[in-house]
Specification:
single chain; alpha/beta; Rossmann fold; L-2-Hydroxyisocaproate Dehydrogenase, Chain A, domain 2; 2 domains; six-stranded parallel beta sheet; three-stranded antiparallel beta sheet; 9 helices; 16 strands; 17% strand
Length: 318
C-alpha cells in the first residue's frame, strides 16, 4: 500500500520516542507515523494509545512495523539506545550505543534510502558521525538534534533573568551536546540588542553581579539533564518539542536556523567531526552551517569541544 506523505518513522518506543510521537501527532505535521522498536508489543501499545485520540487531533495514520516501515519515509528519527542513568555522562553511553547503531543503521538505510536521518540518541554528536559513516548518506542528510534543546534551555533561563518573553531571546549553545558545550555570549541578544548593551538598560542591572549570574545560567543549562534524570529518571518533554521543531523545518522546507549537529569542516581549524553550530535546515536536511564570528575564548572552547569528541571517536571501532 502506498505511503501517505509526509511520513515520519521513529526508531525506538521509549520515553523520548513515544513522547515525540505524541507531540508529532498533535502538531499535524505528518500524515503517517510509524513506530519501530525491538519490543514489538511496546510499539503496538504506543500506537494503539495514540490512535485512540485521532478523532480529537489531525488525520494521521499511526502504526508499528519492522524496519520495512522506513520505506518512503521523509524523515527517520532515531531515539533507540541505552538509557542514560543518574550519575552517568552522555559519553559513558558511547560504546553501548555504538554497538546498537552498527546493528540498526544498515536496517534503516536498506529501506529509507531517501530519508533525512535525524539522530537523537546520546552521545548525539558521536552517534551522528557514526551514522554518517555507516550509512554512506550525504552529510546534509544525516543530522543530530544537537544543542537545539540546550539552546532552548539557555533562552528560557535568560528570559527569566531578564524578564522578557523567551521568544525574544536569541542565543545559542554550540559544540558538543554535553559537558564541553559552550554559550555564544558574544552573539547573544534580546530584541536585536547584544547583552552587553541590553544589560545596562535593565532595571536589575544595579542589583546583580552580571558575570556571576550569567555564568550561573550557563551552568544550569549544562547540568539540567543531570538534575532532571536524578529527579524523574529521564528527560523527554522538552526534547520531544525540539524534535518537532526540527521536523517542521524539514517537512515545511523552512530554511530555519537551528543549532543541529552536522559535519563540520574548515571552521576555526575544526574538521571531520559532527558538532552543533547554527545551520540552515530545510527539506534537504542541513543546507549549510553558519560561520559565526566567535570571540577568542569561544574559538578556543569550540576547538576543545571538537578535540574531545575526536579523541573519543578515534578509539571506537565501527
Amino acid at each position: 500500500m502506498k505511503s501517505l506523505k509526509p511520513k515520519v518513522a521513529i526508531i525506538g518506543a521509549g520515553n523520548v520516542g513515544s513522547t515525540f510521537a505524541f507531540s508529532l501527532t498533535i502538531s499535524g505535521l505528518a500524515r503517517e507515523i510509524v513506530i519501530i522498536d525491538r519490543n514489538e508489543l511496546r510499539a503496538k501499545g504506543e500506537c494503539m494509545d495514540l490512535t485512540h485520540g485521532l478523532s480529537l487531533t489531525h488525520p494521521t495514520k499511526i502504526h508499528s512495523s519492522g524496519y520495512e516501515g522506513c520505506q518512503d519515509a521523509d524523515i527517520v528519527v532515531i531515539t533507540a539506545g541505552a538509557k542514560q542513568k543518574s550519575g552517568q555522562t552522555r559519553m559513558d553511553l558511547v560504546r553501548a550505543n555504538t554497538d546498537i547503531f552498527q546493528d540498526i543503521i544498515p536496517k534503516i538505510t536498506k529501506y529509507g534510502k531517501n530519508a533525512v536521518l535525524l539522530v537523537v540518541s546520546n552521545p548525539v554528536d558521536i552517534l551522528t558521525y557514526i551514522t554518517l559513516k555507516i550509512s554512506g548518506f550525504p552529510p546534509q542528510k544525516v543530522i543530530g538534534s544537537g544543542t537545539v534543546l540546550d539552546s532552548s534551555r539557555f533562552k528560557y533561563l535568560l528570559s527569566e533573568h531578564c524578564g522578557v518573553d523567551p521568544r525574544n531571546v536569541h542565543a545559542y549553545i554550540i559544540g558538543e551536546h554535553g559537558d564541553t558545550e559552550l554559550p555564544v555570549w558574544s552573539n547573544a541578544n534580546i530584541g536585536g540588542m547584544v547583552l552587553a548593551k541590553y544589560c545596562p538598560m535593565c532595571s536589575r542591572h544595579n542589583r546583580c553581579n552580571r558575570d556571576k549570574e550569567l555564568n550561573g545560567i550557563f551552568d544550569e543549562v549544562k547540568n539540567s539533564a543531570y538534575k532532571i534524570i536524578e529527579a524523574k529518571g529521564a528527560t523527554y518533554y522538552a526534547i520531544a518539542l525540539a524534535l518537532v521543531k526540527i521536523v517542521e523545518a524539514i517537512l515545511r522546507d523552512e530554511n530555519s536556523v537551528l543549532p543541529v549537529s552536522t559535519l563540520i569542516n574548515d571552521y576555526y581549524g575544526v574538521n571531520d567531526v559532527c558538532l552543533s553550530i547554527p545551520s540552515l535546515v530545510n527539506r534537504n536536511g542541513v543546507e549549510r552551517f553558519l560561520r559565526l564570528e566567535l570571540s577568542k575564548q569561544e574559538q578556543e572552547q569550540f576547538i576543545r569541544s571538537a578535540d574531545t569528541l575526536k579523541n573519543i571517536i578515534k578509539n571506537i571501532s565501527f
